[in-house]
Write a structure and sequence with these properties.
With 77 residues, this protein is mainly α. It has a domain of 47 residues: Arc Repressor Mutant, subunit A (Orthogonal Bundle). The longest helix is centred in the first third of the chain and has 22 residues. InterPro entries: WH-like_DNA-bd_sf (IPR036388), WH_DNA-bd_sf (IPR036390).
Length: 77
């Protein structure tokens, strides 16, 4: 049986699984707000962050808006 080349879809599925596995230890030591802040610095979309954190893109977007608003106020939340 010949080895089948990985498709783009297969690679994306594998990448998402890898991201989830890498984030697992962080999820045990950091809060969701801190994880959203950290993952947003990588250029990940709200959907990507939501996938890793098992939440919704709307929750991620709201968290990012609050972080941005609190950052403008000089708050260290």
């Amino acid at each position: 049986m010949a080895k089948k080349d990985a498709t783009t879809y297969d690679l994306l599925v594998q990448m998402k699984l890898t991201n989830r596995l890498l984030a697992a230890p962080l999820k045990q030591t950091m809060g969701q707000k801190e994880l959203v802040r950290l993952l947003s610095t990588t250029g990940a979309t709200a959907q990507d962050i939501a996938d890793v954190l098992d939440t919704t893109p709307a929750t991620v977007a709201t968290t990012l808006q609050r972080l941005k608003r609190n950052g403008k106020k000089g708050s260290d939340e």
